[in-house]
Amino acid sequence: MDAAKLNQLKHFVEQCKSNPSILSDPSLSFFRDYLESLGAELPPSAYESGDYKSKSHVVDESDDDMQDTEDDAQPQGTAAEEDEPEIVESDIELDESGVVEPDHDPPQKMGDSSVEVTEEDRDASQEAKAQAMEAISEGNLEEAIEHLTKAILLNSTSAIMYATRASVYIKMKKPNAAIRDANAALEINPDSAKGYKSRGMAHAMLGRWEEAAKDLHVASKLDYDEEISAALKKVEPNAHKIEDHRRKYERLSKEREDRKIERGRQRRRAEAQAAYEKAKKQEQSSSSRRPGGMPGGFPGGMPGAFPGGMPGGMPGGMPGGFPGGMPGGMPGGMPGGMPGGMPGGMPGGMPGGMPGGMPGGMPGGMPGGMDYSKILNDPELMAAFQDPEVMTALQDVMKNPANLAKHQANPKVAPIIAKMMGKFAGSK
């Protein structure tokens, strides 16, 4: 290749590394395609506007993977679409005529309930009250307040004195002062109709329609008069509107919360279903990629057990059993079998024995194709193989079959040897 052209190519590649946007030139689309065919992943700047999304994001993904991505993204999109705006309460149209600005005067003087009231004090208190009533009739409300304050200080146990002064504060449009006196009256006498009436009217002046309606209803039950009735006709419509409004938005809020809970329940159910479907698809995909045979087991199965035995024997012997196999085996079998048999075992022994023995394991297999599962699946034999005494006796017999006679009297060993011989005999 021409050295000059090679240097130009190197220079071009260096420029592409430092500024990948060079590759966005439409005339270089063939070069981009070539790089991608080699497996290269190019940055977004290497593509024309809009082309990156349509082309550079085309990657090798299986249909299952693409579906998994869509499934994962779906719950988030659904949750976003299901978001609801906050409930905005509408204004209530109320009749607020008669509502005044709250009074913020210092609290008026109150009597001392701990002071003992004498008869003279009561008489003087009544005289001050009479003067107050006269001042009220003349429209001198400030003077009336002064006389009633004097009456309260003389007899602080009189609920009617506080309630009367409260009614004067109502006339003076001082609802907070009226409420303080009405509360004092109701503390002394919880059944003071005038106390409830004054407090209810004071609440109405402050626009507290529900509190006003409540107090005026109590006052009406205790001592009905036309003034209470007139106040209720104005207060009740506003109180009902507020109550209906509150119930409406409590209902809307509860419905909104119920929908939110239901959406969350449905979303969790959908996510659980999606996770289940994803796991199921992955399992099916994994199963379809495995070679023939028994997945997770012995490919091709184990027809007919181990034809021809197990080549190479069972290295290391049976687990917990014959370490190193059965060295020396039983050459030539047991001549004449086991004379007299084994007590409770196999009378007559096994004529011919086990030719070839089991040297170094079990090469050549057992005659007729021994099914080892008969031994391995026998709980009694497997338990006996864990007993050192039994294993010592078995190894002694394996080394020299003539030693069988000395173990026939052992009640622990003899039945195990007999059982093994029976299984060997049954395999022929």
UniProtKB/TrEMBL annotation:
Keywords noted in UniProt: Repeat, TPR repeat
GO cellular component: histone deacetylase complex
TPR repeats: 159-192
Pfam family, one: STI1-HOP_DP
Top-level taxon: Eukaryota
Domain STI1: 378-417
Composition skew (Acidic residues), residue ranges: 61-73, 80-98
Feature: compositional bias, Basic and acidic residues: 50-60, 254-264
Region of interest: Disordered: 42-125, 254-335
Regions of compositional bias (Gly residues) in chain numbering: 293-335
The keyword Repeat is annotated on this UniProt entry: yes
InterPro entries hit by this protein: Hip_N, STI1/HOP_DP, STI1_HS-bd, TPR-like_helical_dom_sf, TPR_rpt
Record-given protein name: STI1 domain-containing protein
Lineage of the species this protein comes from: Eukaryota, Viridiplantae, Streptophyta, Embryophyta, Tracheophyta
